[in-house]
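Teaching note: in complex prediction, the entire set of molecules is handled at once rather than each chain in isolation. The prompt given to students was simply: 'Predict the structure of this complex.' The entities are:
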Amino acid sequence: MYNENLLNNLSFKEYRLDKLKKYNKLQIPKWKRINLQDFDIPDYREYNNLQLPGHEDLDIRDMGTVKEDINEFTRYLRVNEEFGVDKKFVTLTEALSNSGVIIKIEKNKRISEPIRLDFKMDNDNPLLLDHNLIIAKRNSELTVVMDYTSNTKVFHSGVTKVYAEDNSNVTIIKLQRMDEDSDDFDSNIAIVGRDAKVNWVSIELGGKITASSFITNLKEDNSKADLKSIYFGDKDMEIDVQYKMNHFGRRSESNINTKGALKDRAKKVFRGDLDFKKGASRSKGEEEEYVLLLDKTVKSDAIPALICGEDDVEGEHAASAGQINELKLFYLMSRGISESQAKKMIVEASFKPVIDKIPYEDLKEKVEENIHRRLIDEKS
Amino acid sequence: MEKKKRTYIADIQRGIYDQKNEFKYKYKSEKGLTSKIVKEISREKNEPQWMLDFRLKSLEIYNSKPVPTWGPDLSDLDIDNIVHYIRPDADISTDWDEVPEDIKKTFDSLGIPEAEKKSLAGVGAQYDSEIVYHNIKQELVDQGVVYTDMETAMKDYEDIVKEHFMKLVPPNDHKFAALHGAVWSGGSFVYVPEGVKVDIPLQSYFRLNAPGAGQFEHTLIIVEKGAEVHFIEGCSAPKYSVNNLHAGCVELFVKEDARLRYSTIENWSKNMYNLNTKRAVVDKNGTIEWVSGSFGSKVAMLYPMSILRGERAKAEFTGITFAANGQYLDTGSKVVHAAPYTTSNINSKSISKDGGYALYRGLLRVAPNAHGSKSTVSCESLMLDNESNSDTIPIIDLKNDDIDIGHEAKIGRISDEAIFYLMSRGISEEEAKAMIVRGFVEPIAKELPLEYAVELNNLIKIELEGTIG
Amino acid sequence: MNKKILDIKNLRSKVDETEILKGLDLEMNKGEIHIMMGPNGAGKSTFANVLMGHPKHEIIDGEIIFNDKIINDLSVDKRAKEGMFLSFQYPEEIPGVTVENFLRNAKMTLTGENQGVFAFRKVLKEKMKLLEMDESYASRYLNQGFSGGEKKKNEILQMVVLEPKLAILDETDSGLDIDAIRIVSNGVKAFSNDDNAILVITHYNKILDYLEPDFVHILVDGKIVKTGGIKLAREIEEKGFEEFK
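The expected output is the structure of the full assembly:
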């Protein structure tokens, strides 16, 4: 079970001990929309599939091998604000991460080619608790692609902390393509400095239960964040996505744009919060969610909240849902395309702008192929 | 740096709303809530046994339920210090001249008897816990329309009341519904027979004069097949330093092809906890229209709900909430689409100023069988200063694919460019802002009967009076 | 009687830290129609906004003298009261305020006289007829849901109702079809008299087919670089602004 003995050979022991105590006091959350009542966190296992990418201009380390004496990173590990899908899963990973990467880019360094992290889960590595730390110092620029895959039923609970210091530009692209029986809990937080920008791209395709949370704290003046995401749910998938933009700095800007499609008996909850804290004057936030409902049996919840403690802001949100626009369908079908083919084209077309953000051709193709395949066996 | 001006907006002088009368009563219950008090209320009213049983059952439920914590802070509301029942020193009358002088003066200054003469088909007036005046035009009586107080309805239409009373809002719905079930008193009963169209409105006015008291009126409206009616509800109270509580309950039954418009202008004083529950159920082709203005109260939790259970039933909601200093107004609208081809349109606006908290909380639920349904929800919030708060929390819950749903929300302040545009035509800054605020609420004002639209404009004028600083 | 209505001397302005007007001089007399042309980014719209007193623009040098009065420090509503009017390039939408209500209000503020509802409605209807506007516009919300052309017509309607001494038309002709340009021009011509002056800021010169300007000014990089008659505008039509840059 999850006890102190597990920590013996691990890095950041003090930090982990503290988190483990908290973890053991917490219960599996009672969620209103996704039922976790009989959910058990599987036993601890090692994860040995991590391959550290190399880059001469970057400080890249394996979270597990960092020695106790490197306290430089500990302060980045500690996040005061509450974040993530739930405290239970966040503290689990913070205490017992069995994998994870620290990437630090020094000030004034700009690296255009993306850094790619592949998290492959399989029968020998069925448990992934990855704790990642991405630190972009002043004026730096960095893109990280994180691809989560499995070929069997696995459990994943991840925590990624992003620090975009002043005037930096960080892009995090996350793909979740796990096996359809797997459970995925992914918690992300970014702290954005003055004139800095964080770009999130999230692509949720796999898993049985998928809960992911992206929280961005626009701490300083002129900080910006952009989040683009797509999700595709079929069969009995349950998806819960939370995107939250906390505006603290003046003239901070955020944008959330989510597109999704649901078929079979898939269930989805979208939570999008724009929270303008008092003092965040002249800030702007926009959010939009559009979901295509492809079957009668799907269930779609949306809670796009606007929270305003400051009057000098512009906040807007829109959520819409429905079937595919009939005029569009008719137009395509008038050119001889079948109805199911036309529907597929429309879903794929709406996902395309987000998929195009993936900087690797092979990944792009795999994502497109995944969606294509699952759209085809419609009504089978 | 460009210096930004702030508008100072003075606090409301509520004038006639704040006129207090001397606290006179025939009977009042002790403070707090016990089965003894509930039995006494029932005895005072000479109620049948089933109603007493219902009250006692509700009290049990009340005691078993926790105070809800998901919304505004209710910890200041001390139920044990609320007087739940006050019979005013007056009997119900159909003649204003028989209403005691001080009570009549209150309703006179609120313009109620005047409005009755000019533009209403019937009027009810409640003072503290009991109705003191109820009247309806003879021609409506001749057509079979019933408009009377709930106590009279309990005697004269016991079967209808028994069949409908707290069936839409059962006491176990939430703590304050249970409280209502235990101590309800007063309110109006309306029955419009099949095919009868009442073309001028009926209006009930609820006045709470007593300090530290609760008002728990029950409004039950049944609109039969093909019938139409417009019901207006007005509420006010003078301000006291102790908290008052309003936990009314409104149950509306709109039958096939029927139409009901339910308008409310709520201007409770700012020591009031307004925890009101309103619900309508609409049959095939029927329409419920809610028009709601929330101006008063210290804390409000008010989410009128429409259950569209018949095919092609419709719900419209038009609401405005104005939260000023010391107010936490948590309002919104709920719609359940429970049948095919049902339609709902929600249009909500809020204004917050001077530290006020305006919150829109909405629910839109589409059941699996509600194919072909449509809904549009639009929420707009205007913040007049930096001390205020404004949140929008809509919940959209869909279980059907063949639907068309749109939700939009916007929060912001008055745009500098719009002010410049209006000022370029010679209008002062203050007037330009007032013009924009009036324009903002215009879509709601125009839904109200004329006297209420005037009252709404007055309320806004009073709220906005001030100087530019 | 003094005929000079507007006298601008060495006007310089900036927005944020960027200088846009860089020493602009312009004189206008009553009874005159002036056209101001210039390439994109010359400062045409800035000039209109500075004249009207937009708070975003700061005057850093020079004077604007309107009817013998320095108005540099007057707020926009005070300038309107003095008799200035700007037809906006992008008029704001004001939901909930009807065209009629708004104009009656503005007219009362400008004249200081009460305007009877029915008397005012009569005047408004006449002016709308002149501009070939449907009467229903009077009860629509100010600019809300108006097409580009309708917004421009509505600006001219406001001008003819409010009867300013100096009307500045900022690209009122842009985005209009030939028919609408004719109607707008007719409105402007009907409005023009010996006691007022009109400054037409434009990017195109189609409107010149309908209006007969007394002067044409070329604005380049925040300054008037050439002034002439209608021939100058024709020249621009052929050769463009290249030689003035």
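Point out the following to students. DSSP finds seven helices and ten strands in chain C. Residues 4-244 of chain C form a domain with the Rossmann fold fold (CATH 3.40.50.300).
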